[in-house]
Automatic annotation (TrEMBL):
It is found in: Membrane. One of its GO terms (cellular component) is endoplasmic reticulum membrane. GO terms for biological process: protein folding. Its main location: membrane. The lineage of its organism: Eukaryota, Metazoa, Chordata, Craniata, Vertebrata. The keyword Transmembrane applies. This is DJC25 protein. The chain crosses the membrane at residues 38-58. The keyword Transmembrane helix applies. It comes from Oriolus oriolus.
Length: 250
């Protein structure tokens, strides 16, 4: 009874002995309460999630590199660069340093993958992981990001709302991305010619974007109408339909 909260429960029990269910609840809630500090549990959980995130992103990045290394277009370019830099000649050593064909092939494969890593900028969900993107650093840097965002937002209001300046290319693309409801990584993964099309059609203007959106929806409907898989699905829905649950009286 040295604990203040426990002492209050005990005094309340003496004053209200008829509320025995409440006394049982408080007694077992304190007896069975976890003894570990909640802060430690949260910290360990965040660290575990961060480690899982980092290795998961590295696995996705390596999968993307392995895929690009198997695409003839990128493999031929990487092989040509390796030959120009004399990297493939080093793998074919003679004399005592001569190695088996399997070892040479593995080393050549690693050289090609390294060139692809250095020459190709992979964006989107398969981009090279950065340690600052994991959950732990995002939480630690949250105050900095908030201050940065507030400063940027004030700058935006001052330049384009108060002073009425014209949007630059980056500002136009930012507005288009917000209209499309895409994240920065998703928008960065788009091809350059797509972004140029967005700018040519002036999609940062709301009315132009609404027209573009309706066109894309109509085009998608046409593709779905011509897709044989959707035709089979619609035919099945018309003839068979989804499963039905009925109750039949015997």
């Amino acid at each position: 009874l040295q604990d203040e909260e426990t002492r209050k429960d005990y005094d309340y029990m003496l004053d209200h002995p008829e509320e025995y269910y409440r006394h049982y609840y408080h007694y077992y809630s304190r007896r069975l309460a976890p003894k570990v500090d909640v802060t430690i549990v949260i910290l360990v959980t965040v660290c575990a999630i961060s480690v899982f995130q980092f290795f998961s992103w590295w696995s996705s990045y390596n999968e993307a590199i392995n895929y690009l290394a198997s695409v003839p277009k990128y493999r031929i370019q990487a092989t040509e660069i390796a030959r120009q830099q004399g990297l493939l000649n080093k793998t074919k050593e003679k004399g005592k340093n001569r190695r088996s064909k399997e070892e040479i092939r593995e080393e050549e494969e690693e050289i090609i993958k390294d060139i692809i890593k250095n020459k190709i900028d992979i964006k989107g969900g398969y981009q090279k992981p950065k340690i600052y993107d994991i959950l732990l650093f995002q939480i630690l840097l949250a105050p900095f990001y908030w201050c940065k965002y507030i400063a940027w937002y004030c700058w935006w209001i001052y330049c384009f709302t108060i002073k009425g300046q014209e949007y630059g290319v980056e500002e136009k693309l930012y507005i288009i991305r917000r209209y499309m409801k895409m994240s920065q990584s998703q928008f960065d993964s788009l091809e350059d010619h797509q972004k140029e099309t967005f700018l040519e059609r002036q999609l940062w203007i709301r009315e132009n974007y609404e027209v573009y959106k309706r066109e894309q929806e109509e085009e998608l409907k046409k593709k779905m109408a011509m897709d044989p898989r959707w035709k089979r699905y619609r035919r099945w829905m018309k003839n068979e339909g989804p499963g039905r649950l009925t109750f039949i009286d015997d």
